[in-house]
């Protein structure tokens, strides 16, 4: 008996039609047109095609889009400056920096420059943390979190074809940050029992044969054979491999379809969903902007904190206070001579200081009182740890007063958070 073919093209078109209607309503009711900015560095032919196709999708859905092309030898800072420009552009709700970037650039630093609320690829550490820590798929949907496009599309395909996930054994073959890991996180949010398999997994064939849902995301043509598949399993093939005979996936499709219950083809399966989910994310980012929910989705990296300007005559706000505190901590540790400070202690104090505000932001985003209390307590714990690590830092006598002032500030923040927890517990 041959498997049911999961048609990504059909489902993708359904998603686009849905998003087009939603975008029209958003424009009518709020005067907002979803906007997507592309940054294309260099002359990679495949990247140019991808960006062109995404821009066409924007046009078809009535979105605003802009493509910024930059030369191969452009500096990383110039790319980050362009990202910052789009971060401030009110017409732009999503920013996509097309990968791969030239070898002289650090992709992670460029990704981190994108404001989390405009990170429609869901690659920013903040967005990864948000969907990874979500307790359920329902929570992810209620919070309208931005999700990585290909894994998101995969979850929609499972849903559209009525494939049960909760309680099922899912095996994800591949552990990349772009594919395997986020796929596992989303399956887990739907209560699957998830195993991540990879090149070092022993008895890989046996592990795969135990799966009710088998996801192949390894980049090896026809690697998953017929005998890897449990009869009746759902097989989702994320691989796209160019061979002499054309595009093929990571699964030996012709053989596998005789065993599987459902299977995605290549092309026309999971890959067909990616751009549609990008459009869905861009719409979602615009909707969140219309609802005024972007302000709480801010987390700063160490470089951004260093560049913050001092606040003047601002009202009391614990988020602002912890943000300023993080900046002061980083300035302090940067000034401590490297031959005096213990590097591990420095790392701990910077981590814990930054975590105070991040957890308090997440507390304010909580859907329930229980979740708020949990995050607020973690924030208080991080303030206590910051105080502890600050006291352990060795510094020159000229910096001791500054260190003591930071210890006092950590103590004060800890007391405020303690009072918040106590009040909210009553």
Describe, in plain words, how this protein is organized in 3D.
The protein is an alpha/beta fold. The chain has three domains: 34-121, Rossmann fold, CATH 3.40.50.10860; 147-268, Rossmann fold (3-Layer(aba) Sandwich); 302-417, de novo design (two linked rop proteins). The chain is 51% helix and 11% strand. It contains 16 helices and eleven strands. The protein has helices at residues 8-30, 45-61, 76-88, 107-113, 125-133, 137-142, 149-160, 180-189, 204-209, 253-256, 274-290, 302-306, 318-335, 343-364, 369-392, 400-425, and strands spanning 4-5, 35-41, 64-70, 94-97, 169-173, 193-197, 213-216, 234-237, 241-243, 246-248, 262-263. The strands form three sheets. A six-stranded parallel β-sheet has the order 1-11-8-7-5-6. A hairpin with a 2-residue loop joins strand 9 and strand 10. Helix 2 packs across helix 11 (274-290), helix 7 (149-160) packs across helix 8 (180-189) and helix 15 packs antiparallel against helix 16. The longest helix is centred in the last third of the chain and has 26 residues, at 400-425. It is globular, with a radius of gyration of 24 Å. It starts with a strand and ends with a helix. Mean pLDDT is 89; it is low at 294-306 and 308-316.
């Amino acid at each position: 008996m041959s498997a049911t073919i999961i048609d990504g093209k059909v489902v993708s078109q359904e998603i686009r039609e849905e998003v087009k209607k939603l975008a029209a309503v958003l424009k009518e009711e709020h005067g907002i047109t979803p906007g997507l900015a592309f940054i294309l560095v260099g002359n990679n032919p495949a990247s140019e095609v991808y960006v062109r196709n995404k821009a066409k999708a924007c046009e078809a859905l009535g979105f605003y889009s802009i493509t910024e092309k930059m030369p191969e030898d452009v500096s990383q800072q110039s790319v980050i400056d362009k990202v910052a420009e789009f971060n401030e552009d009110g017409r732009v709700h999503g920013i996509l920096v097309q990968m791969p970037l030239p070898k002289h650039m650090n992709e992670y630093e460029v990704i981190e420059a994108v404001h989390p609320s405009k990170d429609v690829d869901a690659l920013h550490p903040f967005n990864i943390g948000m969907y990874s820590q979500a307790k359920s798929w329902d929570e992810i949907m209620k919070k309208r979190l931005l999700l990585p496009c290909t894994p998101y599309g995969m979850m929609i395909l499972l849903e559209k074809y009525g494939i049960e996930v909760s309680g099922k054994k899912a095996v994800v073959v591949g552990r990349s940050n772009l594919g395997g890991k986020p796929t596992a996180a989303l399956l887990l949010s739907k209560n699957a029992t998830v195993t991540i398999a990879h090149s070092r997994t022993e008895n890989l064939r046996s592990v795969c044969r135990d799966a009710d849902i088998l996801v192949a995301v390894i980049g090896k043509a026809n690697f998953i054979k017929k005998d890897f598949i449990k009869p009746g399993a759902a097989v989702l093939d994320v691989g796209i491999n160019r061979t002499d005979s054309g595009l093929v996936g990571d699964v030996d499709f012709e053989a596998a379809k005789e065993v599987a219950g459902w299977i995605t083809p290549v092309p026309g399966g999971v890959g067909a969903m990616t751009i549609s989910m990008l459009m869905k994310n861009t719409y979602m980012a615009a909707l969140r902007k219309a609802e005024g929910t972007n302000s709480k989705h801010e987390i700063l990296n160490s470089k951004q904190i260093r560049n913050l300007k001092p606040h003047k005559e601002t009202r009391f706000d614990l988020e602002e206070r912890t943000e300023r505190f993080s900046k002061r901590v980083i300035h302090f540790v940067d000034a401590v001579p490297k031959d005096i400070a213990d590097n591990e202690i420095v790392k701990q104090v910077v981590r814990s200081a930054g975590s105070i505000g991040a957890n308090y932001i997440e507390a304010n985003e909580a859907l329930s009182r229980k979740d708020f209390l949990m995050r607020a307590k973690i924030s208080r714990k991080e303030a206590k740890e910051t105080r502890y690590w600050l006291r352990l830092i060795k510094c020159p006598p000229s910096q001791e007063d500054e260190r003591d002032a930071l210890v006092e500030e950590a103590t004060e923040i800890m007391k405020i958070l303690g009072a918040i927890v106590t009040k909210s517990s009553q």
